[in-house]
Amino acid sequence: MFSGRGADLLVECLVRAGVRHLFGVPGDTGVVFYDALYERTKDIRHVLARDERHAAAMADGYARVTNTVGVVEVSSGGGTTYVVGGLGEAYASGVPVLLITSDIHTRSRDTGALTEIDQEALFSAVTKWRTRVTAAEDIPNAVREALRQITSGRPAPAAVILPEDVLDQRVIVDESTLDGLATDVPYDRPVPENVELAAEMLSGAERPAILAGGGVHTSGAYDSLRRLAEKTQALVATTIHGRGVIADDHPLSIGVAGNNGGDEAVNDHLAKADVVLLVGTRANATDTDGFTAPQRTAKIIAIDIDPARAGRNYPDAVRLVGDADTTLTSLANAIRQPAATPRYCPPVPVTRRCGKNDGVLLPEEVIEAAQEVLGQVPVVADPGTPTPNVATYWKVKAPGRSVIVPRGHGPMGYAIPAAIGVAIARPGEPVLALTADGSFAMACGELETAARLDLPIVFIQFTNHSMGWIKMLQHLYTGQRYFSVDPGTIDAAKVAEASGIRGVRATDLDDVRKAVSEAVRDRMPVYVDVEVPHLIDHLPPVPAWSRALAGDRERPVY
C-alpha cells in the first residue's frame, strides 16, 4: 500500500512513469507539492525556471530530443496564464508535454479568491485533454490518462489540475493503482488500409517526391523513410520541423521546402512532381510555399496519425491514417519493382547568398564557423533571422532530431529556455542556441538558469537592432513605412556577464570560433553577440521575399 499526502502520491506517480526532470516555478498553491519533491531529489530533479512560459519551453525542448513526455509545473493565477504562451508552441508542433498545475483551495472557488481562474477553460486551446482532480485517491488515474492522451495519436500537451487541498489530503492507495504509467512516444503504431493503392501510385510515377515533417521524428521512422525513398528513387524534401529525418549528404536528400528557409529549386521540384508523398507534416501554406510545392493538381498521398490532419490541405489526397514508421515500412514492402535509378535530375542545392557588409558578419558564415568547431550537436533556433539560416546552412550529418525550430507558432524567446531543456536531456553535450536581439529581450532572464546549472550551451545572438522580420515585411509590403520595429539597443554580452555567463562581442569569424572553442573546452556556457546585416540588406532564404524584390508584392497568406 502507498500512504501519504496527495502531493506525495503525485510525485510517486511521476517517478513510476519514468519522469526524471521537472521544469517549473513555485507558487502559493503548490507549496505542498514542492515539499513532496524535497523528499525525492534522488528520484526526480526539479529545474527552477525564471518564468513559467520559459519552463514550458524547457519541457518542450526536452521532449523533442528525448521523444518522451516533458513535464512542466506551475501554480494558479499568473503561473497558469504565463504557461499558456509556452504550451501553445508545443500544442501546434505536436510535442508531448504534461502540465501539472496547482489551484486554489476547493472551498475558495467562486469567491473571487486571489489567483482564481477557470483553468480548464484557460487550457482548452493549448491542450488535447485536461482534468481537475477532486480527491487525492484519483491522482494515479488522472496522471495515467493524461500520459495516455499525450502519447496516443498525434502527441500534444495535457493538463492535470490539483487544488491545494487535494495535494494536502492524506490518502492510502493500493500499489496496483500505480501500474501502467508510461511516458514513451508513440503509445501505439496503427497501420492504415489502402497501402497497396499508394504503392501503385508511387511505382507508376514519373517524378515521385517525398515531403517529410516532424512526424517522422516522433515515430523514429528514419530507416523506413530512407528505405522507401531508395526503393522508389523519390527525392526527399523536408519541412523545417522535418530537418534531420534524412542525412543531408544522402543522394536522395534535396533540402528544405516551403517559404521559410526553403530552397526555390526544392519548391520547383515539388511543384513539378506528379506524385508526392506527404508524411508527418501539416503541409500548410508555409511548408508548401502557398500550396504550390506540391501543387494541388498533383496526386497526393498523405500519411498522418491524426485523421483530421491527413491530407486536409489537399482534399483529393489518398489518406493513410497511421504511424509513420509502420506505414512507410508497409509501403516499402508493397513496392513490387524497385526503381533502378532516379528518373530525373535532382535540383541544384541552394548556394550561399553573397554580400560584403562592413562591420557585420553574415548569419550563414557564423553558422558555418560554429559548426566547424561544434560538429554535430543539437541546435535550437529562434524565429526571425535564425530560422531560415539554420534551416538552410546548418548541416545534418546523421538522421535524428538535432535541429529544433519552433514552427508551430514561431514564438520569439523560445531558443534560450528550450536549449536549457535540451542540455538537461543531453547531459555534458554541447548545445547551440541561435537567437536574435528581439528574442533575447524576451528570454534573457533564463541566462541565469543556464549559469546556475553550468550547462554547456553556446548562445549566439544575431543582432540587427530591430524587429527584423516585421520590418522586412513593412519594407516589402507596406511601402517601406517602418513603424514600431526599432527598439533601443541592449548590450547582450554585458547582460550575460551580469547573469554569470561569459559574454563575448564577436567582430569577426575568428572571434566566433575562439569563443565557441573555449566554451566546448571548459564545458561552460558562453553568450556571443554578433552584429549581422538587416534582412533588408542581406536577404535570407525566404522565396516569397525574393519574388517580392522581383516585383511580386502580393503578401503571402500563411
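Above is the first protein from milestone M3; the second protein from the same milestone is given next.
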Amino acid sequence: MIDMVSAIEELSGLTSKELGEMLKESDNFVLQSKTEDGGPKQVDMEKLVSSLPLHLLAVCLELGQGPDLTYVLRGMRFLHSLSDLASRHTRLEQVLLDDVKLSEQVMDLIFFLLSILAEQKKENNVGASPLVHASLVAASLHLLTSYFSSQWHELVHILLAHPKVDIFMDVAFDSLHEVVRLLNIRLSSMGSGSFHVGSLESRRAHFICQQCEASLQFLLLLCQQKLFRDRILKNKELSRNGGILSLSHTILKLDVPECLKQSTDLVASISRLKANILSILLQLCEAESVSYLDEVATNPNSRRLGQTLALKLLQVLNLLKIAFGRKQNITSDSHDKGKIYPMGSVLISALRLVDVFSDDSNFRSSFMTNTVPFLTQILATPHEEFVSSWCSVNVPAIEEDASLDYDPFGASEVALLASDNVLTEAKANYSCPFRPSLPSMAYAQTRTSCVVKIIANLHIFVPNICEEQERDLFLLNFQKYLVSGSPKLSADEPASSDFKATKVCRNLGSLSDYAKTLVPNLLNVEDVVLLSDFSDKLQSWCKSQVEQVAVKVGQNDTPPESTEDIHPVQQPLLTRTSTPDSKMNNLPKDAQNMEVSTPIPPINPEGNDKDGTPKNTASRNGGFLQNAVGQNLVHLGVARTVSGGSSVVASGVSTGHQRSKMDLDPASSSVDNFKTPELTKENGLQEDEKGESSMYDERQPKRRKRTLMNNEQIDELEKALVDEPEMHKNAVLLQSWSEKLSVQVEQSES
C-alpha cells in the first residue's frame, strides 16, 4: 500500500526536471526518501502513477468531508509534471500514457473536476480561494494538451469521440464563467479601497486575470477548429440558451478600479480577456454550418441578452475610440519597468462583431440609434486626422496581440502559497510569459472596411423585406444627432468649419472614395454604393440646414439662441415611376422602380465655399447627378443614368444571417463605374417625380403629384451649364435664369 496523500504532498512540489533526476538515481522505478522521523522511505512510482487519477477522482467525490480543493490542485500539478516528464522517460511513458484505462480515468477526472468548479457557488461546503479556483480551471483544461495531444486538431478528434463531450463543453465554459464572476467581485471590492499599483492585493487580482486568460485562450484555440466549433453551435445550453453570450457579457463588464488604472499588466490582461471572448463570438457568428445568431434569436431570453451584448459592444468601442492611437500615461509596476503589455485586438474584433450583428435582422434595430454617436465622433474628427487614421494603410497605431504561455507549475505554486497565507510580494509578482503575435498586414484596411459595412448594413432598405418605417431611419437618426450635437452657428459664419455636420459630410466623402480601393478584397460593390448614397443624402441635408440657418439669421438679424431651431427635414419619397419619355427605357428595371428618400434643400445663389464639399460633382449613386446649379438637379425633377450604362443599384437585404447580395448590372459591377460621371446629354432623364408622405411621420399629409420642369426647360438649362459651369457663383445670371424659367412656366400653364 502507498500513502498517496503524503506522497503527493511531498512529490507534487518537485518540478519535472527534479523528478527526472530522482528517477535516474532510483532502482527499479522506486524513489528513496526519508520520513518525518528520519527513517528510510520508498515510493513505488509505477503504483503511484497508475493510482493517481482514480485517487484524485475519489478525493473530488469526498470534497466537503475533509480534503479540499487545495489538495486537488497539488495532485493536478503533479499530473502535469509527470506528463511533461513522460516524453523524456520511456518507463514513465509506458505506465502513464500507454495505458488506455488510465487515459480514460484522466479524462473523467478533468470532466468531473470542471463540473464541480462550475457549480461552486451552489456548493458552499466546497469552497476555495479565488486563486485556487482559477488555477484549477486552467490546470484542468491544459492537462488535455499536456496529457493527450498538443496538436489541436488531434485533441478535437479525441474530445468529440468522447460520449460526454457536450457535458465537457458546458462545464468548461461554466467553470470559466464562475472564475470571471469571482474576479469581477474582487475588482469591484477594490474600487472602494485605496490599493496602490504593485500592492499584494493588486498582484492577486492580476494573477486571477492571468488564469482566466489561460483558460479562455485554451477555449478560443478549440473554437478555431471547425469540428469543435460546429459542435458548440449544436449545443443547446451554449448556443440557443445563451451560455457563451452570458460569459461574454460578464467579461465585457470587467473594469479596472480607478486606483489601479496605472497598472499596465492588469489593464492589458483584462483587455486581452475581452479580445479573446470577442474572437470566440466571431468564430461562432462566421460559421457556415449553423447560424449562431438565429439560434440565439429563437430563445427570448437569449435574444434579449444578445441585444444587451450589442449595446455593450458599442460601450467598448466608445471607450476605445478615445484611447486608440494615443499614448497613455500608464506607469509600469516596480518589477517590470518599461515592459510593454499587448492589449489584444479588442477594437478590430468589436468592429467586426458590430458588422455581423448590424447585418442580422434580429439585432439590426439595436444599432439604428446607438451606433450614431460612435460613428459621428469618428467622422467628426479634423479632416487630415480622419484621412490619416481611416483612409490610409499607415495608421498611427495598430493593436498588438500576444499568446500567453501557460505555466501550470508556477501558477499552482502562487495559488497554494496564497491559500496558506504565506504569499509574499516577491512570489506574487509571478507573470506568465507572452509570445507576441504579428499584426495583420491588412489591419488598417480591415478596420476601415468594418466601418463602411456597418453604415451599409444600417442604411440598406429593400421594400419586400424591410418594414416601411425602416426606410432611411438610420439617416434620420444621424440627422437628429448632428442637430442636437452641433455647436451654435454664428450670423457671420453660418457654414462654419466647426459645424459638426460639415466635417462629417466631408469625411464621409473621403471615406467613400477610399472604400472603392478596398473592392473586391475587403468590400463588395454594394457596400460602396450604399455608403455613397448615404454620404450624398447626408451632404444634401447638411447644406440645406446651413442655408436655412443662414436665411433665418438674415431675417431676424440675430443668430439663433440654440440649434434647437434646426430640425431634420422630413422629405417625401421620390418614386421613379414609368414615364412616356422613351429615354427611360435605357434604365434597368430595378432602377426604374427604385424608391429613394432625398432631402430637398433650398437653392443658395451664393454657393458655399466653406463646407469642404466638392462642386460640380455627380452623385456617387449612379442615378442622381449633383450639378453646379444651387444643389442638385434631382431637386428640380431630374433623374439620369450614369454614362456607360451603369445605373442606380438596388440595395441588398438584411436577413437572418447576412445581407443577401443582389444581382448587379454588369456595367455597375465594375469599380470604375463608381467614378464621378460627366453630365452628358445622352443620359436618360426622368420627366416626372411623385412626392409621397414621409416614412418618418404617418400624420403628415400626402403631397400631390406635380411636374417641376419639362424637357425643354431642362435642355435649355443644360446648354447654359456648358457655357457657364460656375453659374451658381453668379447671382445675377442665376436670377436671370430663374425669371426666364418662371415665365415659361406661366406661359405653359396659361
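Note on the second protein: Strands lie at 30-34, 40-44, 401-404, 434-437, 573-575, 595-597, 690-691.
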